[in-house]
Amino acid sequence: MTTNEETTAAPLVRHWPALDLAGVDFDPILSELMREGPINRVQLPHGEGWAWLVTRYEDVRLVTDDPRFSRAEVIGRRITRPAPHFVPQPGAMNVVDEPDHARLRGAVNAAFTTRGVERLRANAERTLDRMVDAMLRDGPPADLIDRVLAPFPITVICELMGIPDGDRDTLRTWTQAILSSSREAEVGGRAERDMETYFTKLIAERRGATGEDVTSLLGAAVGRGDITEEEATALARAIQLGGEAVTNNTGQMLYILLTRPALFDRLRDDPELRPRALDELLRYIPHRNAVGLSRVAIEDVVLKGVRIRQGEPVYVSYLAANRDPDVFPDPDRIDFERDPNPHLAFGHGPHSCVGGMLARMEQELIVNTLFDRIPTLRLSVSADEVPWRRGALIRGPEALPVTW
User: Fold this and answer.
1) DSSP notation for 76-93
2) CB 348: neighbour CB atoms within 10 A?
3) Among 23, 240, 250, 279, whose CB has the most other CB atoms within 10 angstroms?
4) What is the pTM of this model?
5) pLDDT band at 8 (very low <50, low <70, confident <90, very high)
């Protein structure tokens, strides 16, 4: 809730190094910031100056749904940020405000409706079964990331996008370079340019297409004059990058289940519990290091008694909101019976994840297939020997060695 009454002085600026964390431990600095108060000021490793950080569930929902906090205003500003090349690009759907945001999202909405996602289910199931068949045929041990969790989501997102089979490995290489926080800005920037060139050409080729895949929808929208070529390319890039999150998030979920046998056994033996358990795991896992994209206040706003002035950048933390004890009692405990569970794993407001329904379908298929077909699945190494991605904006295991 906001009022016009400023009652609290601005907190001190805290340096937040955007720790490169392994495992599923919650960021200790973010925990400190949450304890210090509902709204903080932080300085991240790159960019300039400082930004506000909002961590409480109610406030996160307010900021992400309030037109006084603009995504478009971040363009061209060197706002403090977690990675050197993590700079918003003009025209991307995640950095435009209404009504342009609704116009851009409308160009691809058909691919992300219930019908659009369900259109992919049967082929996704067959693809996943083939991958598991091959893993079982080769026998243990196996790397679950290499055999299933990496190739399956990239296959699904590329089918959704309309990417030819021969280009899919290249798209994943570019995605990983773009989403790395440790690589040189030049490497990530080059990958962004290569991906942009690729999608510009593919969308142009599909101007007259009538397909239901994303690049065909974008080509048709450009042909109608609904969106520009630049907007279509930026939108395709954002959706393609979002597919990588499924690999890392599902890897974290399975790491938790494989290192906590009691939880694994419950889901193996009780399929009806799995949908609720997935929601709880989505709430619990630390999806990313630090924060995502910022917003900028376009007028003065008083939040929790603190005045955020026009022109000041603001970050929200969905990770912190998902651990708000006022909404999620005992938030650091995994509780498969948690009900209700209004987590914000897929964001909130106009900029919530357009692919949330698709990601959820993929995760359900992976969990159901692995638990039903490999009920004796377990790690083949100790928990502390599992390697984790270093320098990644989206957290997850680098490999998940298993046996059965």
Assistant:
1) T--B-BSSTT--PPTT-G
2) 20
3) 250
4) 0.92
5) confident
Structure-token match 């996704």, residue found? 124
Distance CA 125, CA 362 (A): 9
60 pLDDT band, cuts 50/70/90, is very high
Do residues 314 and 69 make contact, with C-beta atoms less than 8 angstroms apart? yes
| CB within 8 Å of 278: residues ≥ 6 apart | 253, 360, 363, 364, 367
Q: Tokens for 387?
A: 């390697």
85 pLDDT tier (thresholds 50, 70, 90): low
Decide if 333 contacts 322 (C-beta within 8 A). no
Contact 299, 309 (CB under 8 A): no
Helix axes 168-178, 229-242, angle to 10 degrees: 90
- Dist CA 398 CA 402 (whole Å): 13
What confidence tens digit (pLDDT) does each residue in 337-392 have?
999 999 999 999 999 999 999 999 999 999 999 999 999 999 999 999 999 998 87
Alpha-carbon span 233 to 231, nearest angstrom: 5
Assigned token pair, 211:
């397909």
Q: Are 145 and 247 a contacting pair, CB within 8 Å?
A: yes
Q: Indicate if the pLDDT at residue 161 is higher than 50.
A: yes
Report all structural domains of the chain as residue ranges with CATH numbers, in order of start.
13-388+398-403 (1.10.630.10)
Query: Tokens in use for 184?
Result: 């040189």
Task: Give the whole-angstrom CA distance, residue 184 versus residue 188.
Answer: 7
DSSP 339-384: -S----TT--STTS-TTHHHHHHHHHHHHHHHHHH-TT-EESS-GG
* Rounded Cα distance, 29 and 255, in Å: 23
